[in-house]
Specification:
The chain is α/β, with parallel strands linked by helices and 206 residues long. The protein contains 5 helices and 6 strands.
Length: 206
């Protein structure tokens, strides 16, 4: 019997053809396995990127300027412009307020900004902050004590006492409000309006 007859495949293919076909099948299977591994890795990476991006989106992203002095500004320690005896809080129309949300409550800064606008304040674009250490922190510049007092009157609700902090870099009557987890709601409008007619407390050292 000739060698060609010995190597013939029963279905008309030679043994070499069968081997080549088997090799092609093995290569195809390896390629598919490799593709599956690569696509799976890409899918996992995309999921991880999505989770990270979502977390970054929810995380507060803006902070106010560095606060130079603590909650009790004094004329001795800073450039604070002291109020005079009998001075009352600034007129809301003369105060610009920017509200920053330091909580996980979505839309909080926007809703409070809207309420303050309805009470006569000039409002700036709301934002987020990671520096809210208490229920309500009011950051003002050296010339902004009376402006901060006007804003603070709006937040004295329940057991909340707004904390005033001085930022020596802030200018004029622009005030930032940092809302923390203890914030619940604004003071009643009538109560806040009455507080605007009362003399402000004189800071220590003035």
């Amino acid at each position: 019997m000739s060698s060609s007859h010995r190597d013939a495949h029963p279905y008309g293919r030679s043994a070499d053809d069968v081997r080549r076909r088997d090799q092609r099948l093995r290569r195809t299977r390896r390629l598919r396995v490799t593709q599956l591994v690569v696509f799976s890795a890409l899918a996992i990476a995309l999921v991880l990127v999505g989770v990270y991006a979502f977390g970054e989106f929810r995380r507060p992203s803006e902070d106010p300027g560095e606060i130079a002095v603590g909650a009790s500004p004094t004329a001795e320690d800073s450039a604070l412009v002291c109020p005079q005896e009998g001075d009352t809080p600034a007129d809301p129309a003369d105060v610009t307020v920017r509200v920053l949300n330091g909580t996980s409550r979505s839309g909080l800064a926007g809703s409070v900004t809207e309420e303050l606008g309805e009470r006569g304040f000039t409002t700036d674009k709301p934002g987020n902050t990671g520096s809210a250490s208490g229920a309500v922190t009011i950051v003002h510049g050296p010339e902004g004590y009376l402006a901060a007092a006007a804003v603070a009157a709006q937040f004295r609700a329940g057991d909340v006492t707004p904390e005033l902090k001085l930022d020596e870099k802030a200018e004029g009557a622009t005030v930032e409000v940092l809302l923390g987890d203890g914030y619940r709601e604004l003071a009643a409008a009538k109560k806040a309006a009455a507080a605007l007619k009362e003399p402000v407390a004189i800071p220590e050292g003035c």
